[in-house]
């Protein structure tokens, strides 16, 4: 399992559109996921230890951000044939077990991950109300283990700033995680 770091934020880059099936049976688009003050697109999966270490924190922060007008959505783009733990059925189970307050979407063709430039799980893309990229950093200091409870909430702070000012922080610490499991031809 390769550990990768996300690239520096490409401020102002527009959020690519998508139409993907959710674990709730709906087809979700970018605009349906966006909130009044912005959008957080999270590339996650079920099997990655980096994601497992922060799933509860993702849910907590998403609830808080949704309350201030940031729409949130999680996308799973891994090859489910080689990584059956990431299957749609398992996505549904995880979404229900953890009470995801956001849509959890399957990117079976991996086209959405490629359009966003996602490289790892977790990979966070935070957009302002105009759907311009303002954050491409980590959730917090967690890695394969959950950071202490009192650790700084980097993603939450950045997206709160975006919600209130339309701009993300100039300094951002990259997210680290498992590589996206790309399908082989």
TrEMBL record:
InterPro entries: AhpC/TSA, PRX-like1, Thioredoxin-like_sf, Thioredoxin_domain. Residues 9-144 form the Thioredoxin domain. One of its GO terms (molecular function) is oxidoreductase activity. Pfam families: AhpC-TSA. It comes from the Bacteria. This is AhpC/TSA family protein. It comes from Thiocapsa rosea.
